[in-house]
Specification:
Elements lengths: L1 H11 L1 E9 L9 E4 L6 E4 L1 H13 L16 E9 L9 H9 L9 E10 L5 E8 L18
Parallel strand pairs: 4-5
Antiparallel strand pairs: 1-6, 2-3, 4-6
Helix pairs in contact: 2-3
């Protein structure tokens, strides 16, 4: 199913880059730590999530680092296929999006306007396959005027 969808997007959108990142991304929602140091409590990422983000940045090829893809005028679409060790984890692509932003592949994850995510299982080789596309200018929504609805 993902290969068919990937072929469809390649016909409609421009493929900007594809990455394969080894390791299993950890859910940022389920692994938050409340830090009560100081006057106000704050939520921080778990050690596993931080380690994954560091590993992510190290695995991004130099040619993709600091590309800073995406903008309001050049929104992005992404396909993320995550291969987990087991079927137990929830599908969560937020760690992947944070990794793309932290490594400089994308400017900001808010410029990703279309997300297609899939969870599969590979006990021996957990990983994330990421395909970033440029959404064509013909499909970019313009701000809606009063009484109208925008697209996208």
């Amino acid at each position: 199913m993902t290969k068919t969808f990937l072929n469809y997007l390649e016909q409609s959108y421009e493929l900007l880059c594809s990455l394969e990142i080894s390791g299993q991304p950890y859910s940022l929602k389920n692994r938050q730590i409340i830090n009560c140091r100081g006057k106000y409590p704050r939520i921080i990422k778990s050690k596993e999530a931080s380690d994954y983000l560091n590993s992510f940045s190290l695995q991004v090829p130099d040619e993709y680092k600091d590309l800073r893809l995406g903008s309001l005028d050049a929104p992005l679409a992404v396909i993320v296929v995550i291969y987990y060790r087991s079927r137990r984890p929830d599908l969560d692509v937020h760690a992947v999006m944070d990794g793309l932003q932290a490594s400089g592949v994308i400017q900001n994850d808010r410029y990703i306007r279309e997300v297609h995510s899939y969870a599969l299982q590979d006990k021996e080789n957990p990983r994330a396959e990421i395909y970033l596309f440029q959404i064509p200018k013909t499909q970019i929504a313009h701000p809606a005027k009063k009484g109208q609805h925008g697209t996208l």
